UniProtKB/TrEMBL annotation:
GO terms for molecular function: 4 iron, 4 sulfur cluster binding; rRNA (uridine-C5-)-methyltransferase activity. One of its GO terms (biological process) is rRNA base methylation. It comes from Chondromyces apiculatus DSM 436. Residues 15-73 form the TRAM domain. Keywords: Methyltransferase, S-adenosyl-L-methionine, Transferase. Residues 1-20, 152-173 are annotated as: Disordered. This is TRAM domain-containing protein. It comes from the Bacteria. PANTHER family: RNA M5U METHYLTRANSFERASE, TRNA (URACIL(54)-C(5))-METHYLTRANSFERASE. The active site is at 420, 420 (nucleophile). S-adenosyl-L-methionine binds at residues 294, 326, 352, 394. Belongs to the class I-like SAM-binding methyltransferase superfamily. RNA M5U methyltransferase family.
Length: 472
């Protein structure tokens, strides 16, 4: 449906200028999170902040492709719309689906995955997608990337503060990158941050007061659940920042910190700056400082357990050779290297290009007495050994077209592909399916609740699937 909103129901003045105010019905959600509507003329309009079933008044920007509708008013709320619990939701770019109920988020995630895969592969009888819900939809983030900026400028209007009185060090605003921009949306509370990390939003402006420039600040849970802070700064930091870092570590309130200044080759390290989660096996899992980590401890655990369950389906009678690509610090490896219960592995090889992550992975395996070879190499250019039985891969958002080609050319019995980007996953599935592998299981883990992001697990095999193990 479409209805012009404006005097007399006709085109408003904006129609003839930069945009047009219209009422549109939202019929689905697109990858990237926006609601999708169609005008009477059939023009597709993306509306950020919309929910399926909403009727919204928008201001259309036709310079963008597809056209973008700025949400002005919700005329009728769709059935899955809820009131977001966070007051920063409209300016902060972090939680683009906080206005959707958990079940609406899950349904939309499953639909985005199904659509991406069936479009790319032309397979229309995909297995049903089981979505593992988040047990903690708020307070789940055990790591986050913040943005900090000194002095004036950059903050969206609502967050601009008056200039500091003369003699006071310039304030540093801390928050997230604002939605659809690189501006700073300063926040002093974040409902999705783990309670152990949320206080940092109020401490970091003090830590950085007097700095010039801007930078990213990565925060995570470290040893003993205490925060670790990684500052990547372009500009100058005042002496008080360094002394406060020393103090935080000495008094034991933070487990560690690391500061990388632009133009300075070596970072300054305080305490142990490596994040630590509880691994899926219940033991501590050490992560590379500044390296990759899953956003939540609980989600990482669900993911690792499910990946291992799927890797061990339809076991051969002999010990297996297992290859893990894009292994990171070992979130999945600590279960994979263990092998299926009661059965030894013939070999476990994990490939990761980050030296610090690979070092953590070795440490994580050896702390558990697990054998495995960790190779520092390009996983997207790693040949799959002829003897490999199962390949598990978890590439970054760009996907793994090289690895997919190598797997397609191999004779592996099964593949478990973990992806945070349905589009590149779908692209990489094309050669895998063409090589004779079939999708036996399709699952999603709500690793990023309140956002349009989703983690997908696909298992492929060369033979008919056995019954799936019970989902917990
Ligand atoms: C999505 S993360 C997954 C890591 C691990 N599975 C986990 O859950 O923590 C992808 C990992 O691949 C690594 N990586 C990215 N490109 C790579 C490449 N070309 N070769 C090897 N590793 C790569 C990154 O450093 C990162 O650790």
């Amino acid at each position: 449906m479409k209805k012009h909103v404006g005097r007399g129901g006709g085109s408003s003045r904006r129609d003839r200028a930069t945009g047009s105010r219209v009422a549109l019905s939202i019929h689905e959600l697109a990858a990237g999170g926006a609601g999708v509507a169609r005008t009477e003329q059939g023009e597709v309009v993306f509306v950020a902040g919309a929910a399926p079933g909403d009727v919204v008044e928008v201001d259309i920007d036709r310079a963008a492709h597809p056209a973008r509708g700025k949400l002005l008013k919700i005329l009728t709320a769709g059935p899955g719309r809820i009131t977001p619990p966070c007051t920063f939701v409209e300016t902060c770019g972090g939680c683009d689906w906080m206005h959707l109920s958990p079940s609406t988020q899950q349904d939309a995630h499953a639909e985005l995955i199904r659509r991406a895969i069936s479009r790319a592969t032309a397979v229309d009888d995909l297995p049903p997608i089981h979505v593992h819900p988040a047990l903690q939809p708020l307070g789940y983030r055990t790591r986050a990337r913040l943005f900090a900026k000194a002095g004036r400028g950059g903050a969206p209007r609502a967050f601009k503060k008056p200039p500091p009185p003369p003699g006071k060090p310039p304030r540093v605003e801390v928050g997230y990158r604002a939605s659809s921009s690189h501006l700073l949306a300063s926040v002093d509370r974040c409902l999705v941050l783990h309670p152990a990390l949320d206080p940092l939003l109020r401490e970091l402006p003090t830590l950085l007061a007097g700095a010039t420039g801007e930078g990213d600040v990565l925060i995570a849970a470290g040893q003993g659940g205490r925060p670790v802070v990684e500052i990547l700064w372009s500009g100058d930091l005042p002496p008080t920042t360094w002394s406060m870092l020393d103090q935080r570590i000495a008094e034991g309130t933070w487990a560690g910190a690391r500061v990388s200044l632009e133009g300075v080759s070596r970072p300054a390290s305080f305490g142990d700056p490596r994040p630590v989660l509880q691994g899926a096996d219940g033991a501590p899992l050490l992560l590379a400082a500044g390296g990759f980590g899953q956003p939540s401890e609980e989600g990482a655990s669900v993911l690792a357990k499910r990946v291992a369950d799927l890797a061990w389906l339809d076991l051969p009678a002999r010990p297996m050779h297992v290859l893990e690509l894009f292994a990171g610090s070992g979130t999945l490896s600590i279960l994979l290297a263990r092998g299926p219960s009661g059965a030894d592995l013939a070999s476990f090889v994990a490939v990761e290009h980050g030296a610090e992550a690979a070092a953590c992975l070795r440490e994580n395996l050896s702390a558990r007495g697990l054998a495995g070879k960790v190779v520092v190499a390009d996983a997207d250019a790693t040949p799959v050994p002829p003897r490999a039985d199962v390949v598990i891969l978890d590439p970054p958002r760009a996907g793994a077209s090289g690895a997919a080609a190598a797997i397609a050319a191999s004779s592996v019995r099964a593949v478990v592909y973990v992806s945070c980007n349905p589009a590149t996953l779908a692209r990489d599935l094309v050669p895998l399916l063409a090589s004779g592998l079939v999708i036996t299981h399709l699952e999603a883990v709500e690793l990023f609740p309140q956002t349009s992001h989703i983690e997908t697990i696909v298992r492929l095999a060369r033979h008919r699937p056995s019954r799936a193990p019970a989902l917990s």
